[in-house]
């Protein structure tokens, strides 16, 4: 075999060993067996493989921003309480 053919065969073996070929086969068979073919086959494949949809990503970004705000508020509250505690210790 030539070097290119050897590399291709090694890569095919790697994909097979990693389970990629089986997974892709299952997804493609699932797409084939769909009674109503989806308009966007790539999105169908992505969803079968567990990729987040665009709406999931946007929702997660929004939730992340909200949580960052809460963390900031809580950090500020901790600082205030630490300052109060230091003031009480200084007064006693």
From TrEMBL:
> Any idea which GO molecular function terms this record carries?
transcription coactivator activity
Q: Which InterPro entries match?
A: AMY1
One GO term of the cellular component aspect? Answer: nucleus
Keywords, A to Z, come to:
Coiled coil, Nucleus
Q: What is its main location?
A: nucleus
Where are the coiled-coil regions?
57-91
Recorded superkingdom: Eukaryota
Q: Where in the cell is it found?
A: Nucleus
Q: Which family does it belong to?
A: Belongs to the AMY1 family.
This chain belongs to the protein called c-Myc-binding protein
* Taxonomic lineage: Eukaryota, Sar, Alveolata, Ciliophora, Intramacronucleata
